[in-house]
């Protein structure tokens, strides 16, 4: 199996980094340094190599270095499926992000054809106890990793729903205004539901086929809606009066939820301990990575921010063993180099420091 990895990464005026250059090989990259030095900012830059808004879901303006606010640029030499691609992503003074692949301007969704990127960040630790919206985003990121076109279907659905909701809020009752929008909603909504189910099946199979130190989660998609486009369109029409009263669309994949159960204990993930919830998340990310390696032909880039939090030494060692066995280039952060001791020479160590507000990087052999 080939590898997906970054051999050169440059950040210019990105977040805290005035300029940062990282040259790396295929091994995992262990990034360490004090809080506030800009470790997570490096991971965020790598996350932009995939479709979507990145691991922080930030606007282009939010990612520019202050106080200059001149705009920013991220470049990477990405090796994927036996080919090397030069990727440039930038924003000028808060304008929308632009992308070039091998010198040619391209939509951001095109990144999904050459790269797969998964991440686990501290805010996701609350996945099982927060609202359903966060779990939908988590599920859609997993789905997008398998099906890059999922992003376009989601955008089409959101656009049609916004327009339908506007009619509902304006109390428009004439059916002809709704017909075309409900057809678009139904087609995109049915595709989104099918994509999510396909992703969950792939994750379930990847979990069942692997022996791991991390617990298995039984996943279910909770969604009270018709699953075919024809039936969903009919349901939207039938529900129009109820939606008018609410001022919004009340059925569809935007109302779905993801349910997880700690399989060995038959305990809902929301009722597990903090450590168990973290271990379940790690298990899902690893399963997603294994499934992608088989589907895409190479393991994805893994971004693991403060991955050592809530993992004891034995589980950290098990995680590192699984990452290296998978052959993934994982970009991991932690406050101290000692958190990555069990990786030894299997990883590259990158120290990030901060002096006078300027972050610097130094790769250690």
Short note summarizing the structure:
The chain has 365 residues and is α/β, with parallel strands linked by helices.
Give an overview in words.
- This protein starts with a strand and ends with a strand.
- The mean pLDDT is 92.
- It has helices spanning 39-47, 132-146, 150-169, 176-208, 229-238, 240-246, 274-296, 313-326; strands spanning 5-14, 17-23, 29-32, 72-80, 83-91, 98-101, 104-105, 117-120, 217-222, 257-262, 267-268, 301-304, 330-334, 348-355, 358-364.
- It is α/β, with parallel strands linked by helices and 365 residues long.
- The longest helix is centred in the middle third of the chain and has 33 residues, at 176-208.
- Helix content is 36%, strand content 24%.
- Helix 4 crosses helix 5 and helix 7 runs parallel beside helix 8 (313-326).
- The chain folds into two domains: 1-116 and 298-365, 3-Layer(aba) Sandwich (Rossmann fold), CATH 3.40.50; 135-275, Glutathione S-transferase Yfyf (Class Pi), Chain A, domain 2.
- It has a six-stranded antiparallel beta sheet, with helices on one face.
């Amino acid at each position: 199996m080939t590898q997906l990895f970054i051999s050169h990464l440059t950040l210019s005026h990105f977040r805290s980094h005035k300029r940062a250059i990282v040259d790396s090989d295929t091994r995992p990259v262990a990034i360490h340094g004090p809080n506030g030095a800009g470790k997570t900012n490096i991971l965020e830059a790598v996350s932009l190599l995939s479709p979507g808004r990145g691991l922080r879901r930030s606007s282009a303006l939010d990612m520019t270095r202050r106080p200059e606010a001149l705009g920013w640029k991220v470049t990477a030499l990405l090796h994927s499926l036996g080919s090397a691609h030069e990727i440039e992503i930038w924003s000028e003074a808060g304008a929308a992000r632009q992308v070039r692949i091998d010198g040619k301007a391209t939509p951001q969704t095109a990144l999904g054809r050459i790269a797969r990127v998964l991440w686990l960040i501290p805010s996701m630790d609350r996945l099982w106890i927060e609202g359903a919206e966060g779990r939908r985003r988590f599920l859609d990121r997993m789905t997008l990793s398998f099906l890059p076109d999922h992003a376009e279907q989601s955008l089409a659905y959101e656009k049609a729903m916004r327009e339908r909701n506007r009619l509902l809020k304006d109390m428009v009752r004439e059916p002809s205004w709704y017909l075309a929008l409900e057809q678009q909603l139904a087609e995109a909504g049915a595709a989104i539901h099918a994509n999510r189910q396909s992703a969950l099946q792939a994750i379930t199979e990847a979990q069942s086929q692997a022996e791991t130190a991390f617990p298995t989660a039984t996943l279910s998609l909770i969604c009270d809606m018709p699953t075919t486009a024809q039936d969903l369109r009919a349901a939207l029409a039938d529900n129009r009066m109820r939606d008018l009263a609410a001022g919004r669309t009340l059925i569809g994949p935007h109302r779905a939820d993801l349910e997880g159960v700690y399989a060995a204990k038959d305990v809902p993930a929301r009722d597990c301990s903090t450590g168990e919830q973290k271990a379940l998340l790690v298990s899902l990310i690893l399963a997603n990575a294994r499934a992608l390696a088989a589907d895409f032909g190479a393991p994805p880039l893994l971004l693991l921010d403060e991955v050592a939090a809530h993992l004891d030494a034995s589980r950290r060692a098990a995680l590192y063993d699984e990452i290296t066995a998978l052959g993934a280039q994982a970009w991991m952060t932690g406050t101290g180099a000692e958190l990555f001791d069990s990786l030894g020479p299997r990883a590259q160590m990158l120290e990030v420091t901060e002096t006078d507000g300027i972050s610097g990087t130094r790769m250690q052999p």
